[in-house]
Design a protein that fits this description.
six-stranded mixed sheet, Rossmann fold, Dimethylsulfoxide Reductase, domain 2
Length: about 525
């Protein structure tokens, strides 16, 4: 997030897209609802489903799946045509405006309506509302990123924010809501194939040299590695022979699960490190039991870049150990000394090799966390990014063209499927599905379908249906709901016994390599 969670309440307008905020981020949704209910903040929600947060919205724009670039370009078309953009910000802090102007020129409200299904008049009114705000905050989540055009979607939102001068100010920003606890921290620590800690590029020879000197090693790779979605196909091809999976359950969470399972079963050696015996761990040659969040000390970096202390509340059961302890011992056994007396020693090393964490210590974050970047010991942290300038100087507008989703509905597969979460279960259910109370509230999978489509395909609420895509099929309970939009069904992905990802498309965004979880073509048939 460029801004903080609390900063959301300082916004005059909030734009939420690709985020079922009340169910996926209920704490953050409380800030939104409070801002709307008590501070007069205006809310725009762009989402195909009639999600709960849309009840608070001044405008709920229901776009066709995979058409986000089109409606964002459409809003910018209106804002530029009506001279509503922040001319001072554009002139002084950005580059490439003329190219953006040319790119969005074709996206008239009428043309956008043809692509997205959003009524032209509603698009114009929403654009005027966003542009007219002194401070407007954009909140988005995986409904924006999990597309073959996910990178384009994110760049488009950044374009919109820069166009209206909504970066570097209280109540503004482009604020991605992280999907899991400490995802931000994992990325900060180099849990990506192209960076060391703090997003220091592995292809930068100077950074590689500095890391080698600190760690007293030679031969660190200066080449980008592979993403998860690139690794599994290479396992099937035999190019990758071993995987070490920590805290991930790809046999429920990966797209096109039938293919993913073949890939994993083709490995010569699989190690899984987790707190429970997951569907993936059951296939492992070695399972390393690790401690959960309440059983270890350390730090988490949350969605607003705040680095926070966590403290052990109970001892881990059986032979379970902290993740850093397990990794350090493996390093020792492989011949590299990794002696740490405690988690604080690990954190101290992180801060020494990570410029954005350099000013942090356990003492400084003892009671209240600090937002990175925090480069020196006397630096207060950075709650709001880009207040004076962007890291590269001027922010660059990216002209983006609309590209349709990889897979289209047709006569054989006439419906679209999108996937997501429900509030009572979490991700692949590794933890939540072991809770009796949560299972009472959300016991199993379902397919959410509009009343019109239910009548069209002879599907009755509470009965079961087989949902089929070009990759597989599952059988789930039917939920006829006004939340659904005609032509699109929704299935949560938590439930291994009816895994939505047996249906989803593994086509990747060419830049981020994220799969298109949010759009695929399906057909439904009633089951007796």
């Amino acid at each position: 997030m460029t801004n903080t969670i609390g900063d959301i309440e300082d916004a005059d307008v909030i734009l939420i897209t690709g985020s079922n905020t009340t169910e996926n981020h209920p704490v953050i949704s409380a800030f939104v609802k409070r801002a709307v209910s008590f501070k007069g903040t205006k809310l725009i929600v762009v989402d195909p489903r009639r999600i709960k947060i849309s009840r608070f919205a001044d405008y709920h724009l229901r776009q066709n799946l995979g058409t986000d670039v089109a409606w964002i370009n459409g809003m910018m078309h209106v804002i530029i045509k009506e001279n509503l953009y922040d001319k001072g910000f554009v002139e002084n802090r950005t580059a490439g405006f003329e190219e953006l102007k040319i790119a969005v020129e074709p996206f008239t409200p009428e043309y956008v309506e043809e692509i997205t299904g959003i009524p032209a008049g509603e698009l114009v009114e929403a654009a005027r509302l966003y542009a007219g705000a002194d401070a407007a905050s954009i909140l988005y989540c995986m409904g924006i990123t999990q597309h073959t055009t996910g990178t384009d979607n994110v760049k488009s939102l950044a374009n919109l924010a820069m166009l209206c001068g909504n970066l570097g100010i209280p109540g503004g920003g482009v604020n991605p809501l992280r999907g899991q606890n400490n995802v931000q921290g994992a990325c900060d620590m180099g849990g990506l194939p192209n960076v060391f800690t703090g997003y220091q590029k592995v292809i930068d020879g100077g950074i590689v040299k500095r890391m080698q000197e600190y760690w007293d090693v030679e031969g660190l790779s200066d080449k980008n590695g592979l993403t998860v979605t690139q690794m599994l196909p290479k396992a099937l091809e035999g190019e990758i022979k071993t995987l070490y999976i920590i805290g991930e359950n790809p046999l429920v969470s990966d797209p096109d699960l039938n293919h993913a399972e073949k890939c994993i079963k083709n490995l010569e050696f699989l190690v899984v490190q987790d707190i429970f015996l997951t569907e993936t761990a059951r296939l492992a040659d070695v399972v390393l039991p690790s401690a959960c969040f309440a059983e270890k000390d350390g730090t988490f970096s949350n969605t607003e870049r705040r680095v926070q202390r966590i403290r052990k509340a109970v001892e881990p059961p059986g032979e379970a150990r902290g993740d850093w302890e397990i990794c350090a011992e493996i390093g020792e056994r492989m011949g590299y000394p990794m002696k740490y007396d405690h988690s604080e020693a690990v954190f101290n090393e992180i801060c020494k090799v990570t410029p954005s964490y350099a000013g942090l210590t356990y003492e400084r974050i003892e009671k209240i966390g600090i937002h990175w970047p925090c480069p020196t010991s006397d630096h207060p942290g950075t709650p709001i990014l880009h207040t004076a300038a962007f890291p590269i100087g001027k922010g660059v507008f990216h002209p983006i063209s609309f590209i349709a989703p990889d897979e289209q509905a047709d006569e054989e597969y006439p419906m679209y499927l999108t996937t997501g979460r429900v509030i009572y279960q979490y991700h692949t259910g590794t933890m939540t599905r072991r809770s009796e109370g949560l299972n009472e509230r959300a016991p199993g999978s379902f397919v959410e379908i509009s009343p019109a489509d239910a009548g069209k395909y002879n599907l009755e609420d509470g009965n079961t249906a087989k949902v089929m895509s070009r990759r597989g099929d599952i059988t789930v309970k039917i939920r006829v709901s006004e939340m659904a939009v005609d032509g699109t069904v929704f299935i949560p992905f938590h439930f291994a016994e009816a895994a939505a990802n047996r249906l989803t498309n593994a086509a990747l965004d060419p830049v981020s390599k994220i799969p298109e979880y949010k759009v695929c073509a399906v057909k439904l048939s009633p089951q007796n």
